[in-house]
Sigma-54-dependent transcriptional response regulator
Amino acid sequence: MEKILIIDDEAFIRENVERILTDDGYQVLCAASGTEAREIVADEDVDLVLLDLNLGTEDGIEVLKELKLLDPELLVIIITGFGSVESAVDALKLGAFHYMKKPFKADALRVIVKLALQTQTLRREVRNLRKGDLTLFENVPLVGAGEGLKEIIRQVKEVARFPLSTVLITGESGTGKELVARTIHHLSDRREAPFVAINCASMPVSLLESELFGHEKGAFTDASQRKPGLFEEAHKGTIFLDEIGEMDVSIQAKLLRVLEDRKIRRVGGTRNIDIDVRVIAATNRNLRDAIREGNFREDLYYRLNVFPIHIPPLRERKEDIPVLAKFYLDRYGRTFNRSFQIISAEALRLLETHPWPGNIREMKNVIERICIMHDGPELTPNHLPPEIKQTEGSVAPPATDVSADLAQGLEAATDRYEKQLIAAALAMTGNNVLQAAQILKIPRGTLRYKMTRHGLHGGGSDGG
């Protein structure tokens, strides 16, 4: 429920405006002076202010300045008498949203208030999309032909019907976990509210806490003003916590409390704030292993794992590969004005036998690169990058000389073989450490340790 503050020294005006807005379903607060208003804005999360410029001995313009210092994002509608239109224009220059001249009709008030609140919602959504850790939604449907994908779609449609159910999406990097989360949101009753995504592995603990829960002015050195967190931004909508397995244990405890109480408390704050948010989490880690290692709370796992959805890797969904490849070929063919129409049988065989360590993300990048560099009408093996033409299935074990290995001893031979195998996996993935770790079936941290021990360097990304 949106919260509106009325600031007017005339009780008659306050009472009439309060009645109109309360009848329309808003929560209304009232203040007779600038002092009262400042206290309310400091303590409450106000969505909109109606401010009379003539507050007896107080200057409404000064009150506006002070409220904007407390909350720069606050929307303010100015109420002014006939003789103070010039002051209203000054208020607009200071960031007021609109002004209304007295006397005004109830219907006009309703229209302006509704427009202001819609503007506030749009501002928040744009702010979310502009954040560096958020990904703009690609208009890509869940594509495939196999029974596995059909089951995922069935699960997505089912859980979308229940807007409070928490969802845990598991699967390797690049399998489309965020796409599944966005589809759940889009199919649910929350579709008109924000979808807010954050990668829990992309920022340090202190910053992640502030991003999720917000902070009050003065909570830490750089906190020059109050800032709502992403849970508040996602109110009535969905928050997507990607890479939840990388979240620090200290924040896990606070997230558990949010899931239990449906309340958050800003960093440096003293009061709880009610939230109405669906939480969807995703991870490419085995959380049960993380629990055994002491890196993930078991109670949080069970809170998140209310409705689990597992997305198999692309190498286990061979029947989806032709459909996905054609989908991206058509898409990027249009983007780059190419004439590709079909995929040859031999090219399709190579695509189907490639292990796709980067999953759908890797396929998307491969097809996009082909459409940038080549033209059709037929996609042939000559168009495919070397890693697909040269590898069919998995990393081939390096050749060994048993006599030499015996002369070296078991430990030295094992080290040499391990180094060769890691080097082969890195070469196959273009030095992508995360994808190489997935091929080798070891944790990314373990692979980095072994790379350092063997003097190997990954020049590419850790993946995501």
Observations:
- Residues 43 and 271 are 9 Å apart (CA to CA).
